[in-house]
Amino acid sequence: MPAIVVLGAQWGDEGKGKATDLLATTDPIDYVVRTSGGHNAGHTIVVNGEKYATHLLPSGILTPGATSVIANGVVVSPEALFRELDGLVARGVEVADLKVSANAHVIASYHATIDKVTERFLGKNQIGTTGRGIGPAYADKINRVGVRIADLFDEKILTQKVEAALDVRNHLLTKVYNRRAIEVDAVVEELLSYADRLQPMVCDTSLLLNRALDAGQTVLFEGAQATMLDVDHGTYPFVTSSNPVAGGVCVGAGVGPTRIDRVVGVIKAYTTRVGSGPFPTELFDEDGVQLQQLGGEIGVSTGRTRRCGWYDAVVARYASRVNGLTELFLTKLDILGAWERIPVCVAYEIDGQRVDEMPMTQTEFHHAKPVYEFFDGWQSDISGCRSFDDLPDNAQAYVRALEEMSGAKIWGVGVGPGREQTLVVPG
Ligand code: GDP
Ligand code: IMO
Ligand code: MG
């Protein structure tokens, strides 16, 4: 199975880091690749009780023998990249080999400034971004005024590009947002300061990955963000500015769709969301507080409390469809051990009508009320289970029911954050 995509099937934080780490350690993996987003991601990996969080780096950075790749579709803050690498080294981690695409776009400090002032300007309509400059960096890319990694190695070109990028932005900052203009020289100087350290890592990552696949090597594409945060397929405008769906992997890595063998959707046994935007199964009662507390639902990147709700099978079916999922990895089943009865959203009611599939418009989605089916809980701690058969009957029945309604086979179930706390579901 040479090319495997791991991606988020909900609104992020499903456990993609754990799923990637698991796949990278159970089968020999040659490359672990990020293809979209930037350091807005926060992926947790727990190895031998030690907790690590990766943001811009692929989780493969912790896997000995695997090469980590930041491909062309990622937006790269060199400052965040080196801070993260240095942080891991300071903890004694032997970091894996890292390659960075020459075509990846750069996040400079002005992108984060613009991200934050734009959010403030939006007031109550704000997206609730991570404030990392992701949206403004992708906007520059699409507006064709972006700076790419390769530009950092030519001062003249870099200066021209930063000038072009700041031309309109500075008018906006000074005249609309009442902020000070950003100085081109200071930005160029900062970006140049990363060039020497970055240069040995930079290569044509599309060529590298296609050659690896030609040679029968295994490549794992580690998704960031998630399907419902996709700029095309998510809850626009409450989305990120990239394409975290499976199709985005091909664009973001420069590999063709015919090369992908497996597409694994990571999905929680309930649902969470950070930031603003519609969320039909969101809970505002004691159950929501309990899910948040038992699940430790606090953002890895921003420390924000995650909004919590029950499992939404409409979202799961939608994610299976738009990503062509070959399988699902269901995480955090252990968190549901406290409930006597577990609701699962099987459809929506929209303006008095039952709707079984994701509605076409965001207006309808905003009006969607969950239609629940109830499942018997198991009311016990399952974190010590090490095979699917060890699970209480009601937990097995819950997994089988979710599989039935979610549009893809569930291959694995997480019963805790550790590598060993994963159960393979018999076929
Ligand atoms: P990602 O962004 O998709 O990689 O997910 P995050 O790391 O942001 O959030 C997932 C959280 O759930 C992390 O704290 C993981 O350690 C934890 N986690 C992953 N799988 C499981 C599981 O099966 N059970 C429990 N209890 N925690 C899990
Ligand atoms: P991982 O990879 C959860 C959300 C933000 C905000 C919206 C836009 O850990 O699952 P952005 O800064 O990207 O412009 O913010 O997207 N968001 C995430 N939510 N997990 C993530 O990453 C996220 N990355 C972005 O909270 O609502
Ligand atoms: Mg996360």
Automatic annotation (TrEMBL):
SUPFAM superfamilies: P-loop containing nucleoside triphosphate hydrolases
Keywords: Cytoplasm, GTP-binding, Ligase, Magnesium, Metal-binding, Nucleotide-binding, Purine biosynthesis
CDD domains: AdSS
Residues annotated to bind substrate: V300, S301, T302, G303, R304, T305, R306
Cofactor note: Binds 1 Mg(2+) ion per subunit.
Active site residues of this protein: D13 (proton acceptor), H43 (proton donor), K141
EC main group: ligase
Keyword Magnesium among record annotations: yes
UniProt-listed Enzyme Commission number(s): 6.3.4.4
Alphabetical GO biological process terms: 'de novo' AMP biosynthetic process; IMP metabolic process
One GO molecular-function entry: magnesium ion binding
Subcellular location: Cytoplasm
Annotated residues for binding of IMP: D13, E14, G15, K16, N40, A41, G42, H43, T130, R144, Q225, T240, R304
Cofactor(s) needed by this chain: Mg(2+)
GO CC field: cytoplasm
The organism's place on the tree of life at top rank: Bacteria
Any Pfam family the entry gives: Adenylsucc_synt
Reactions listed under catalytic activity: IMP + L-aspartate + GTP = N(6)-(1,2-dicarboxyethyl)-AMP + GDP + phosphate + 2 H(+)
Sites where the protein binds GTP: 12-18, 42-44, 306, 332-334, 414-416
Keyword Nucleotide-binding: yes
PANTHER family listed in its UniProt record: ADENYLOSUCCINATE SYNTHETASE
Function: Plays an important role in the de novo pathway of purine nucleotide biosynthesis. Catalyzes the first committed step in the biosynthesis of AMP from IMP.
Family classification: Belongs to the adenylosuccinate synthetase family.
Record's subunit section: Homodimer.
Protein name from the UniProt record: Adenylosuccinate synthetase
Gene responsible for this protein: purA
